[in-house]
Design goal:
By secondary structure, this protein is mainly alpha-helical. It has eight helices and two strands, in the order αββααααααα. The protein has helices at residues 5-28, 45-56, 58-74, 83-100, 106-134, 139-174, 181-192, 201-244; strands at residues 30-35, 38-43. Helix 2 crosses helix 4. It is elongated.
Length: 245
């Protein structure tokens, strides 16, 4: 199906918005697990991130993943200051899955999904570790938090791959009769190219520095926000005890 440039851009915006909405909703299908100061979750948001990347490629899938997950954080006081880091880590997951899905063989698609999930797990555990350290916790406490979060992240990752891969093949077939399929075909064509345009080293370096700065700032703000919430909770608890006495 041949499309004009404007129509293709419209389909791309619609697709990113739709997948971002699915990522957002998937985050609400969750089980929260308190972990000291931190809160970890088992949810279905990651499966939608992987699906977005597999279907629509690295950039489109990454943007849908990042926007959808960051939007969820922005509407939850517990995670609001984590939104920038969430955008980066979820973007990385969707982008990786989309960039590595070079063919439609089940093994290759599954490996692309697994790799995308592993990239996110690494970034999430990195955030968990440094959050505890910034809060003044010990190395032991930080690694304990990482261990607990690694367990829930692994469960999330397994669920995401199990859900996203079959959905990819089912939706790919179903979307062949729609205009949106042109974006999938375009992604396939891009993945089949033997050579790609390489970005200038200076641009890559600048992006890396800015990303690292955003990650560091987001982790620090998240840690400070959690610390304030914990102190407020302790103060309220102490106040209630005084009143009872």
């Amino acid at each position: 199906m041949t499309m004009t440039k404007n129509r293709k851009a419209l389909y791309r915006i619609i697709t990113i918005g739709l997948m971002a909405a699915l990522v957002y909703v998937g985050n609400y299908l969750q089980i929260k697990i308190p972990n000291g100061v931190l809160v970890t979750r088992i949810h279905l948001g990651n499966s939608m991130c992987l699906l977005a990347g597999l279907l629509f490629g690295g950039l489109n899938g990454g943007l849908a993943s990042g926007f959808g997950a960051a939007l969820y954080d922005l509407f939850d006081p517990t995670y609001i200051v984590s939104a920038p880091y969430t955008f980066i880590s979820k973007f990385a997951m969707g982008f990786t899955a989309g960039a590595l899905r070079t063919k439609n063989e089940k093994v290759r698609v599954t490996l692309a999904a697994i790799t995308g999930q592993l990239v996110y797990i690494f970034l999430y555990l990195l955030k968990s570790y440094f959050t505890i350290i910034i809060l003044g916790g010990t190395q032991e406490a930080a690694w304990t938090a990482v261990g607990t979060n690694a367990l829930t992240s692994s469960i999330n990752g397994i669920l995401a791959v199990i859900i996203a891969v079959p959905l990819y093949f089912a939706l790919r077939t179903a979307l062949k009769q729609t205009g949106i399929y042109a974006l999938i075909a375009e992604n396939d064509a891009e993945n089949k190219q033997d050579s790609a345009k390489k970005a200038k080293p200076s641009i890559i370096a600048a992006i890396a520095v800015l990303t690292a700065a955003a990650i560091g700032l987001s982790i620090r703000l998240s840690a400070e926000n959690k610390l304030k919430a914990k102190r407020a909770e302790e103060a309220n608890s102490l106040s209630s005890e005084i009143k009872l006495q």
